[in-house]
């Protein structure tokens, strides 16, 4: 009886406060990033992303975001920059429709993947991360932007979701350490970890300007209490290439003269090796 009650409570909790399916939340998320608070968050994130993109190179850059109107890759020097999105959009950067859990790309084909809050609003964030790792080449880079639950922004989100059913407040609580553990399992090495947006999530521009001292000191000291974090990781897994042995340079044992080294086909005809013993 107690197990049924616990199961029922968990089901109702997920239904009320859990993460919504991404397709049903995309429109509301795009509209939120066009609001004053959403634009402020996106502007702060863009500053960090631009700083990292200037030092990353390659041939192909893939952006996966929950906001259809954002192009976060303009500061990159990579010529082929494109995005995939689960719904039809007029954004020129988006070149195709795709489910983030099953990307229509071959393995080891992308040099740089940018995940903009995709893990936060995915019901299976570890699957999305594994797909990004699959399409990324060895020594390629992954940029992850996520909301920090241990911040003023995370506290505000925890309080607001009790009074609002808006999808932007119903996202995963992914700690920085948890995401780094997932990356380590997938053979990623963190290159840089930064934090941003230390101000409370206020809509008033006057309050935001007054609290800019929090943003300056937090960014200067890179304090871990920012509203979002930016992770730059490098994929260190290597592709194993079989090497054919070179018997031409084989040096025989001292005191033994090797006449012939038997291969698989030779063993069937000559089951025993032949040696000349030096006396």
> Would you tell me the overall average pLDDT?
84
Question: What's the main sheet like?
Answer: 7 strands, mixed
- Work out the strand percent: 15-25%
- CATH topology call: Rossmann fold
- Gross morphology is globular
Cα(first) to Cα(last) distance is: 88 Å
H/I helix tally: 9
In words, what does this structure look like?
There is one protein chain. The chain has 279 residues and is of the alpha/beta class. It has one domain (2-235): Vaccinia Virus protein VP39 (Rossmann fold). The protein is 35% helix and 21% strand. The protein has helices spanning 2-17, 22-32, 36-53, 125-135, 152-160, 176-185, 205-210, 212-221, 264-269; strands spanning 60-65, 80-85, 94-97, 110-116, 136-147, 188-196, 228-235, 256-258, 275-277. The protein has a seven-stranded mixed sheet with strand order 3-2-1-4-5-7-6, sandwiched between helices. The protein has a two-stranded antiparallel sheet with strand order 8-9. α4 (125-135) links the parallel β4 and β5. It is globular, with a radius of gyration of 27 Å. The model has no long low-confidence stretch (mean pLDDT 84).
Write a short abstract of this structure:
Helices cover 35% and strands 21% of the residues. With 279 residues, the protein is of the alpha/beta class. The chain has a single domain, classed as 3-Layer(aba) Sandwich (Rossmann fold), CATH 3.40.50.150.
